[in-house]
Amino acid sequence: MKIGSFAKKFGVSIDTVRYYIDLGLLIPDKEKTQYQMNQMCLEDMAFIHQLKQVRFSLKEIHKILSLKRLTNSNDNEDASYFTNLLLEKKADLMIEKDEISKAIHLIETKIHSNKDDFSNPAKVGIPLFFVPLFCCPHCHQLLNLKDASIQGLYIYKGVLSCPCGYQAIIKEGILLTDQLKSSPNKYSIYEIDVKKWNPGFVSLLEKGKLWMIKELMKNDLAGKIIVETNIEVSMLLPKYLSSLSDKAYYIFTCHSLKTIVELKKKIEKANPNLTVLYIVNSDLHLPLVHQSIDFFIDSTSFTQFSLIYEESPVAILKPYLKKTARMIGSYVFYSTHAKSLKKIQTIYPAANSRALHLDYLEKGLRHNRLFTTKKEEIGYTEDPGSYFSYHEAGEKMKLLAYAAYCHE
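Below the sequence we write its predicted structure tokens.
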């Protein structure tokens, strides 16, 4: 019998049959370059199928087949040996069954717990602390708050307006601006298919985040205002909620309201004592007074920004930074002549012409009088995942971590 007919008879692929042959589970005849599946192959394949049904591994099946081939399988002693193997497998499966039942119970408990968490969130509004910081991003006048709903030290709804016509809305404790622009590809972590991200690339990003958090924690954060933008996909500070100082003030922004809502619920549950302002915004023209930010966190946010805006994010942010401000970040880039860089310009027509070039970051910092105190190339990946449609197979997508300071 030819290998194709044999595979079809047992409902498996030809590759599976060839794999079994390579392992020695099946031993066919060979005529020139063609395998001919003999009667013994038919018997062995049927036996393999039976053993797989009762969850024997291929390694275990090979051992059993080896005994069958070395001895007379009808011998009573051999039958007893096989029976003992079946009894041992049954005992193993009973243990596995108990473990699976426990795991299912834990999953069900977690599902109900999550439903309870999100059906009854601790609703916290915008802290009154931030009101004196609200400023028009266009004419730089302080914004007026009207039609406000205030309970205790929090604003839950209201309108922030400027005589020049600028307006932002406070709804359910979140500040909503109309300065929104998203990537042509979805890039909120709640919207994309995470399976399209290679785990190796995710691990690379995680190494960068560990570098950043260690660098941030070297500073005295008490009374400091810390801003992290574009948290749709890669965020730093919210990953370390339990260790964040409740003496600092935090501002998180992104273009996705869904991401902000989910993040707000998680933070309120994990560390309700944090003073946090949540802003829906994507262009970095924030409704905040100039020279108000002590630390800016760039968790690949400049990388994302470069794909959808021509403007330099450093130039936009510089006026918001105090003269003693620090910037800590990580940046994704390619070597100068990488083909991926050309593909970016095709897929993202509005991208900065230097998007994902290393000099995009370096020139942006230098031209705005921000100077790096530390930088380290964390590593690279040749396969970030299919989500990154511009990536050319085999090219190195690199990650740089850096720390910078203002210098006037």
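The mean pLDDT is 88.
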